[in-house]
Amino acid sequence: MSEEHLNTTLKSIKERFGLHDSDLMKYPPTLIVAPEKIIEVSQVLRDEFGFNFLCELTAVDYWPEEEPRFNVIYGFYSHANNVRMALRVPLNGDYPSLHTLEGVYRGANWHEREVWDMFGIKFEGHSDLRRILMSHDWEGHPLRKDYPLGYEEPQFTFNYDEIDKRKHHGRYEEA
Amino acid sequence: MEEGSIGVGIEQKAGNMGVVTVGLEQAVNWARTNAMWPMLFGLACCAIEMMSAQAAHNDMSRFGMELMRASPRQSDLMIVAGRVSRKMVPVIRRLYDQLPDPKWVISMGDCASCSGVFNNYALLQGVDEVVPVDVYVAGCPPRPEALIHGILTLYDKVRHEKIGSWV
Amino acid sequence: MTEPLEVNYQELKHLVSERALKGETVLLNMGPQHPSTHGVLRLLLELDGEVIVNCVPDIGFLHTGIEKNMEAKRWELAEVMTDRTDYLNTTGNNLAYCLAIERLADLDVPPRAQAVRVILVELERISNHLVWLGTHALDLAAMSMFLYCFRERESILDIKEICSGQRMMTTFFRPGGLWRDIPADFEIAIRRFLRMFPGRIKQYEALLTKNPLWMDRTRNIGKISADDAINMSLTGPVLRGSGVAYDVRKAQPYSGYEQYDFIIPTGTHGDVYDRYLVRMEEMRQSLRIIQQALDKLPYGPFRSNNRKYVPPPRAELGTSMEAVIHHFKLWTEGFKVPKGAVYVPVESPKGELGYYLESNGGNQPYRIHMRTPSFVHLQALPLMCKGHLVADLVGIIGSVDIVLGDCDR
Fold first, then answer.
1. Does A50 lie at the interface with C, CB-CB under 8 angstroms?
2. Which residue among A63, A154, A166, C164 has the highest number of C-beta atoms inside a 10 angstrom radius?
3. Whole-Å CA distances, A134 to B86, B135, C76, C214, C338
4. How far apart are alpha carbons B129 and B107 in whole angstroms?
5. What's the pLDDT at C7?
6. Cα dihedral sign for B5, B11, B12, B18?
7. Neighboring chain B residues of A142 at a CB cutoff of 8 Å
8. What percent of chain C is modeled with pLDDT above 70?
């Protein structure tokens, strides 16, 4: 683990783009980036500092907090220097959008599709933004905090009929 | 010859010539159980235990399931091994419809019987919402011996079927 | 009959090439139920005769909503679900989850627990490679390998059953150490396994490695170069088969791996045959690690002493009031992990498995994301299979070693 490489990277990126450390992430060392600058920062990380591997692309929903509502997390690794770091991008609004990272790292393709599917964050410029884990006609974005878990309630004798009314009954019949 | 069948006098004579008499129900049910081929329908973790049950240590071929057919048109048992997600439901129903009669369904594992540990939006709460199930095998995942016990229970059920309920 | 899934033509036109729309190439659906796709994976193949022009994977048929479901359970109860994501690497998933909690909560893990964790994780690695080898060989029509591999696997499952009572989903690792101390016949069973297994690997290699049929079906198939692999975020044996020696156990060691001596096998061409050789050698290296860990197994406690996270032993409950209070809080409310977020990578047999865990100070996880290797590797499948025949595709899918529970969670 070359700590010096990591420290020089963090220092120069912070100075160049004016970013802060994130105090929420304990490991790996993280910087908070505004949504407009993310492509530039990751390009600089890949070309100049050797972070050629994208480990992770995911998002967190902080509903009912509105500012920020979402946080998109990018994790990077440098093969040559064996160091890890991460970036967090705060986003507001119900259907925010971000530019796609596919041009810089091809492996971001399916990760971004999953974030669209689960959170509703659109990625502009993505080659193929469709639902990946849910079926294509599913409504809603499941991993948002205002989406219900959708569990089946246990039906005892005293509340059997009341839950039966709410329950989804299949319409499949034998052929 | 099953116990409970009445010995008819002709049997002793015919037995020496190599002919046995047996009821139609018993004969057909025996034939159905002794060579019931399951369809390869392993979805998740229970599929690994199903493969273990087919492998050499616990051998399902002793019970007639010599091989698993990939095509539903050539099999008569569907062992739903694993959790069924909502995206998979039309696929399961279609495969069940493609099985030729007579067909049976074993719901293997907790997730197929009642969705097990996962009570949420993404899974079907029990595969009996879409296909009629004959035997439920509990466990997460059920041991291969438990699956074999489930299969023998199914054989028991098939052996007691009557002419009126055949399709 | 049920209606088929209605798919909008306009939505999917961009996936297929021009030739398909004119009718020159055939669109084939290798459906969710198929003997060779190792689970419920749907592939849309565009074929020119038998040659694959493009392949579009369609996943999500096993999506279980594990990440959302874990947010509704307490920290220790949610561990049960981690087993069921990658069901061939159950102890590895448990380890990643426990390491993430220990990182967030600054829990210490005693060295005995670390050593036992390493032993069980390496046994799981061997068990995963055995299932991989069995099913891969079965797809490429070497059926007896399937039976041999599952016979070996029964010994490993017996060892796991000795420790925890369950064959596959053990949940044996808990935050702070292990659930209970290993029993006396653990060491005996492992030594027996260590004596028996190297001979079996030799048997498998004798069957397959120099076999002309095997080499014909696996050489120069599914090649991917090192640069492409790194750009597509591939890890694990797929990346090592292309020549990059990256292994999280050596790069960022966890749970005491720095004490053990093992090499990282790499391939040169990046084809299916090299990945096969890499995995066979990994099985041998795992045996080395288990041998070293078992020889050095230290005495001591098996779980941390931090009573805020670990329940006190039952004998103490009769004498100490604090023990009763801790027990009560842990059983009714569960432990609370301090606020923070962490990403912990672990080397699973398939690649780099990472757990992103975020806590807001409560007794339930706020957000868990599993960065699973199978999800990332399936993206590279279209790249690897262009220009090959359909029969080769089966070998390529097998060599990438996907598990759909891992991919869809």
1. no
2. C164
3. 8, 30, 28, 38, 33
4. 12
5. 56
6. negative
7. 121-122
8. 94
Residue C21, pLDDT score: 67
Among B133, B131, B89, B110, which Cα is nearest to B44's? B110
**Alpha-carbon gap, residue A117 to A122, rounded angstroms:** 9
Beta bridge partners of B137: B108
> From CA C265, how far away is CA C279, in angstroms rounded?
8
CATH classification (class only), A3-166? alpha beta
What are all long-range contacts of C77-80, with beta carbons under 8 Å and residues at least 24 apart? C77/C334, C78/C364, C78/C365, C78/C368, C79/C171, C79/C174, C80/B117, C80/C169, C80/C171
CA quadruple B131, B133, B137, B138: dihedral sign: positive
Tell if the CB–CB gap between A149 and C232 is shorter than 8 Å.
Answer: no
List the Cα angle C254/C257/C262 in 5-degree steps.
140
Contacts of A12 (CB under 8 A, 6+ apart): A49
Helix runs in C65-142, H state only: 66-71, 75-83, 90-105, 111-139
Closest approach of B13 to chain A, Cα-based (Å): 48
What pLDDT is recorded for position C127? Answer: 93
Partners of C246 on chain A (C-beta within 8 Å) are 79
Interface test with C, best of B117, B125, B127 (most C CBs within 10 A): B117
Q: Which of A79, A109, A132 is nearest residue C60 as measured by Cβ atoms?
A: A132
Q: Which of B78, B85, B120 to mutate to test the interface with A (most CBs of A within 10 A)?
A: B120
Name the residue of chain B whose CA is nearest to C155's CA: B57
Select the residue of B87, B120, B130 nearest A150 (Cβ to Cβ): B120
pLDDT in tens, A84-120: 888 888 888 888 888 888 888 888 888 999 999 888 8
Q: Which residues of C touch A135 (CB under 8 A)?
A: 5, 60
DSSP B166: -
Identify all chain B residues contacting A147, using CB atoms and an 8 Å cutoff: 121
Residue of A nearest to C244 (CA): A79
Write down the residue that tokens 């059926």 correspond to: C143
The Cα–Cα gap between C292 and C194 comes to 11
- Contact state of C154 with B122 under an 8 Å Cβ cutoff: no
Amino acid type, C210: K
Query: Residue C371: beta bridge partners?
Result: C354
**CATH 3.40.50.12280 placement within chain B:** 38-158
- How many residues comprise chain B? 167
Q: State whether residue B117 sits within 8 Å of chain C by CB.
A: yes
* Pair of tokens at residue C356: 């992103």
Nearest CA in chain A to B95: A175
CB B115 within 8 A of CB B126: yes
A70 burial via Cβ count (<10 Å: 0-12, 13-18, 19+): buried
* Cα radius of gyration (chain C): 23
Which residues in chain A have their CB less than 8 angstroms from residue C384's CB?
none
Neighbouring CB atoms inside 10 A of C61's CB total 25
Chain C nearest CA to A142, separation (Å): 8
Rounded to whole angstroms, the Cα distance separating C260 from C256 reads 8
Domain-wise residue ranges, chain A: 3-166
* pLDDT class of C11 with cuts at 50, 70, 90: low
Distance CA C347, CA C342 (A): 17
pTM (two decimals): 0.90
CA-closest candidate to residue C157, choices B118, B45, B107? B45
**Tokens at C401, concatenated:** 């070693």
Whether the CB of C1 is below 8 Å from some CB of chain B: the reply is: yes
CATH number assigned to the domain covering B38-158:
3.40.50.12280
